[in-house]
Amino acid sequence: MLSAENLGEIRAGGERILELARRDPGRAVPQYPGWVMVDLIEHLGSIHARTTLICRELPAERPSAPRPPEGADVHGWCESNLEEMLSALGEADPDTPVWGFWPESTMGLWERRMVIETGVHQWDAEQAFGDPGALTDLVALSGLNEFETMWLPRLVELPVLEVKAVDLGRSWMFSSGSPLRTVSGTASDLYLRLMSRPSPVELPLQWATAVDALEPPPKK
Questions:
Q1: What tens digit of pLDDT does each residue of 59-70 get?
Q2: Phi and psi of 6, rounded to 5°?
Q3: Which of 163, 118, 112, 111 is nearest to 11 (CA)?
Q4: Could you tell me if 101 and 54 are in contact, meaning their C-beta atoms sit under 8 angstroms apart?
Q5: How far is residue 137's CA from residue 140's CA, in Å, rounded to a whole number?
Q6: What confidence score (pLDDT) does residue 1 get?
Q7: Residue segments in the chain with a per-residue pLDDT below the cut of 50
Q8: Residue 171: phi, psi to the nearest 5?
Q9: What is the reported pTM?
Q10: What is the 3-state secondary structure (H, E, C) of the chain?
Q11: Contacts for 76 with CB less than 8 Å, ≥ 6 apart
């Protein structure tokens, strides 16, 4: 079975996003120009549905992410997908090998990805309402631990960057070669900046350009 703490984090984040989307489904999402809240929850519901499929079918190749049926209540569809995914993750063996974005992918890495995915999109939803809080320590730490295998391979070759989370007493070294640059901040601020979100952390120019060029998810 997977971690109750992680599953609780995913549930809290998912329910918060759905709450905000019900409040104003047509509110613009600044992180994704052209999106409104219903687009954000449709995207997240699709990711959650794919994760459920991965839990249950253990595919060796990348599966397509399901979309809501024509005319479906997107809020209800997303809420159902969240519950089904939490149930599937709760029954999964974290050591089971399965397709994923990482070398030697396992179900445990998918659990971590959903902590991050849901937590960051909670921040996006709260930003849409003008009140984004910090990422939780669990979301930020999971994201920083994952960054080297999930995102670094998608970036151009970059100089070494040392990232220091002053609140957690942890550091990470990203990329290879020289020269060495160091940035410090809270784990939340560091990960938000690496995910091209507003943050007081200032990345070196090459790094800032590279992370800001990462493609956003498709709207449909």
A1: 989 999 999 998
A2: -65, -45
A3: 118
A4: no
A5: 5
A6: 47
A7: 1
A8: -140, 155
A9: 0.94
A10: CCCHHHHHHHHHHHHHHHHHHHHCCCCECCCCCCCEHHHHHHHHHHHHHHHHHHHHHCCCCCCCCCCCCCCCCHHHHHHHHHHHHHHHHHHCCCCCECCCCCCCCEHHHHHHHHHHHHHHHHHHHHHHCCCCCCCCHHHHHHHHHHHHHHCHHHCCCCCCEEEEECCCCEEEEECCCCCCEEEEECHHHHHHHHCCCCCCCCCCHHHHHHHHCCCCCCCC
A11: none
Supply 189's token pair. 């601020």
Six-digit token string for 81: 């997908």
The first and second tokens of residue 102, run together, are: 């990482």
Residue 220, both tokens: 């449909």
Scanning the structure block, which residue is given the tokens 């999930």? 150
Q: Residue 61 burial by CB count (10 A; 0-12/13-18/19+): exposed, middle or buried?
A: exposed
Tokens linked to 61: 């190749």
